[in-house]
Design goal:
single chain, 200 residues, mainly alpha, 73% helix, globular
C-alpha cells in the first residue's frame, strides 16, 4: 500500500500504524477470549519490557540477528542508491522492486527478532534513525550501526527510568518510549515541508 507511488516516509509510517492497529485488535481479541493465568503473561510482552530478560534470551536470536545485521551492512550502499530516488537509481542499474523488497524484508526480520525478545517498544524504530541521522548523516554504512546503538540506548534508558520513576513499582520501558515517541512523531510531521512532483 505504501509503495504504489514513490515511497514516502510519512506514507510508509501511516500505513504501518494502520496495519499495526489491525494486528493489535486481533491480539486483544485473542487475549479477551482466553482465560486462566497464561492469559495475563502476554500483557507484559505487549507493553515492552526488559523485565526477566537475560543473556539466554539474546543467545536464542543471536545467530539470526548477527547474520541479518551483517547482510544489512552489506546492502548499505544499495540503500544509498535507493535514497537517490527511483529514476536516478534505475539509471544506475538498481532493480527497484527486487532490491526494495529484499531491503524491507531484512528490516522487518530484524524488527521481528527484536520484538520477539523484548516486546513492543513503541516508536523506537522511528526515533533511533532520525537521531542517528543527525549524528552521522545519511550514509547508511554509518547510519545503520549508529541507529542500532541509539535504539538499544533508548530501550535500556527507558528500562532504567521505569525502575526509578515510581520505585518500587516498575513502569514498562515500552510505555516510556511511547510517551517520548508520540511528541517526537508529531514534531517530525510538523517539520515536514510539502513536496511537489517537480522536486521529488
Amino acid at each position: 500500500m505504501a509503495g504504489r507511488a514513490d515511497v514516502d516516509a510519512a506514507r510508509l509510517t501511516l500505513v504501518g500504524i494502520a496495519v499495526g492497529f489491525v494486528m493489535e485488535a486481533g491480539v486483544e481479541f485473542l487475549l479477551v477470549t482466553r482465560t486462566g493465568p497464561e492469559a495475563s503473561a502476554p500483557l507484559i510482552w505487549l507493553t515492552g519490557s526488559l523485565w526477566g530478560r537475560g543473556w539466554s534470551h539474546l543467545a536464542s536470536v543471536a545467530p539470526a540477528l548477527i547474520g541479518l545485521m551483517a547482510l544489512a551492512l552489506l546492502l548499505a550502499f544499495r540503500l544509498d542508491l535507493q535514497h537517490l530516488g527511483p529514476q536516478r537509481a534505475a539509471t544506475l542499474g538498481v532493480h527497484l522492486g527486487l532490491e526494495r523488497g529484499v531491503l524491507m524484508l531484512v528490516g522487518v526480520l530484524l524488527a521481528a527478532l527484536s520484538v520477539s525478545v523484548v516486546g513492543v517498544m513503541g516508536f523506537v524504530g522511528l526515533m533511533a534513525p532520525h537521531i542517528a541521522m543527525r549524528l552521522v548523516g545519511g550514509r547508511h554504512g554509518a547510519l545503520l550501526p549508529v541507529a542500532a546503538l541509539v535504539g538499544a540506548l533508548l530501550c535500556t534508558g527507558a528500562d532504567v527510568a521505569g525502575r526509578w520513576v515510581a520505585a518500587p513499582l516498575e513502569i514498562s520501558a515500552g510505555i516510556l518510549t511511547a510517551l517520548l515517541g508520540a511528541p517526537f512523531f508529531l514534531w517530525l510531521l510538523a517539520g515536514q515541508r510539502p513536496t511537489t512532483g517537480a522536486n521529488r
